[in-house]
Amino acid sequence: MATGIVSIGLHLVGQEALSLILLVLAALVWLALAVDFTRRLRRDRNRWKTEADTPPALTAVAATTILGTWFALLGRSIVAVAALVVAVLVWPVLLTAVMQHWRRRLPGTVFLVCVATQGLAVLGGSLAVLLPSGWLAWPALVCFGPGLALYPLAFVRFDRGQIRSGAGDQWVAGGTLAICALAGSSCWSCPPGAAPPCTTRCVRSRSSRSRCRWAGTPSSSSPRCAGRVHATT
């Protein structure tokens, strides 16, 4: 999960080579963990159930949505949709197991119930912009609401003494709010019923200037496609 986040950050600051290296590394680690996850489920079910009852198990969902969001940013919609399907199938199983075994005075990992849920909203919102129909905006919004509602539920079970003496996972409490903001932004930027997303199309003019314009299926009610024309020398 952390490797995927750093990879996206490097992409946003233009460090594409390092970003892709970390993306490959994150994908390989995800595959290795997925194999181990499946192996434990088949061969050691009791251990799997014990570990699935704890909040850190939800990092499986969060990590999957992060990788899916990265592939959505790359325009790899098939891979991103596959990641969303996996996350949606695993999320209710792990979330139910974790919430059934909640207790008082938990460490900061308790907020992972929000992180995993908002991860679905972020990935769904990213795919709503990427895919022509944009229908995933509604499911993304549906995930965003429960993700917010889970925060106060997690907070009342959070051991506030961990703020001073925790091992570091207490910072998840603040990071969760940042992810909630990102999820809200993702849902807000692609409202249901919006026109299909614009894509960039670059053509070289006779004067050797590269003109990049946003193309697609703009409409009079689609502000996302309006005014997005720029030229570079």
Strand order of the largest sheet: 1-2-3
Terminal-residue CA separation: 38 Å
Strand content: 5-15%
| Main sheet summary | 3 strands, antiparallel
Helical residue percent?
A: 55-70%
Helix tally equals 9
The count of strands amounts to 3
State the order of secondary-structure elements, H for helix, E for strand.
Answer: HHHHHHHHHEEE
- pLDDT below 50 for ≥5 consecutive residues: which ranges? 194-233
Give an account of the 3D structure:
The protein is mostly helical and 233 residues long. The protein is 63% helix and 7% strand. It is built from 9 helices and 3 strands; from the N terminus they run H-H-H-H-H-H-H-H-H-E-E-E. It has helices at 2-12, 16-43, 45-52, 59-73, 77-100, 112-130, 137-155, 162-165, 172-189, and strands spanning 199-204, 210-215, 229-232. It has a 3-stranded antiparallel β-sheet with strand order 1-2-3, with no helix packed on it. Strand 1 and strand 2 (210-215) form a beta hairpin. Helix 6 packs antiparallel against helix 7 (137-155). It starts with a helix and ends with a strand.
Annotation keywords:
single chain; 233 residues; mainly alpha; 3-stranded antiparallel sheet; 3 strands; globular; disordered C terminus
